[in-house]
Write a structure and sequence with these properties.
mainly beta, Ig-like_fold, 2 helices, 3-stranded antiparallel β-sheet, two-stranded antiparallel ribbon, 113 residues
C-alpha cells in the first residue's frame, strides 16, 4: 500500500462527507485516476477509496460513558466489519472507508470471533 498526502477541494466531497452517518452515501466514496507517463496513459481499474480514523464517543442511552473493554463492531460502507474496545469513554476505528456505517455492541459470541 502506498500512502500519499492528498488534499481534496471539491463541492462533491463536502456533500459526501458528514459527521452524521445517516447523511453519508450508501457506498464508499471512490475516486478513479488515469495516470500518464511519457504520453502513455496507464489506467488503474481499482478506485482510490478514501479512509479515515473514526473517533466515536461510547455512551449508553442515558448519556453515561460505556465501561472500558466493551467490544464495538463497526460495519463500513464496503460491508467490512471492524472491532474495537471502548477506552476512556470512546472507541477508535482506523482506516475505515468514508461512507455510511453502522455501529453495535458485540455480544459474547461476536467478541470471541
Amino acid at each position: 500500500m502506498i500512502r500519499l498526502p492528498w488534499e481534496v477541494k471539491s463541492i462533491k466531497y463536502d456533500a459526501e462527507t458528514s459527521d452524521n452517518p445517516s447523511e453519508l452515501p450508501n457506498k464508499p466514496i471512490e475516486y478513479h485516476f488515469t495516470i500518464s507517463v511519457n504520453d502513455e496513459k496507464l489506467y488503474n481499474p481499482k478506485p482510490l477509496i478514501l479512509t479515515t480514523t473514526f473517533n466515536i464517543k461510547a455512551q449508553k442511552k442515558s448519556g453515561a460513558s460505556m465501561i472500558d473493554g466493551k467490544t464495538i463492531i463497526l460495519t463500513s460502507a464496503e460491508d467490512k466489519k471492524y472491532k474495537a474496545k471502548t477506552k476512556d469513554g470512546k472507541v477508535v476505528f482506523k482506516d475505515v472507508a468514508l461512507g455510511k456505517y453502522s455501529l453495535k455492541v458485540a455480544n459474547v459470541s461476536e467478541e470471541e470471533a
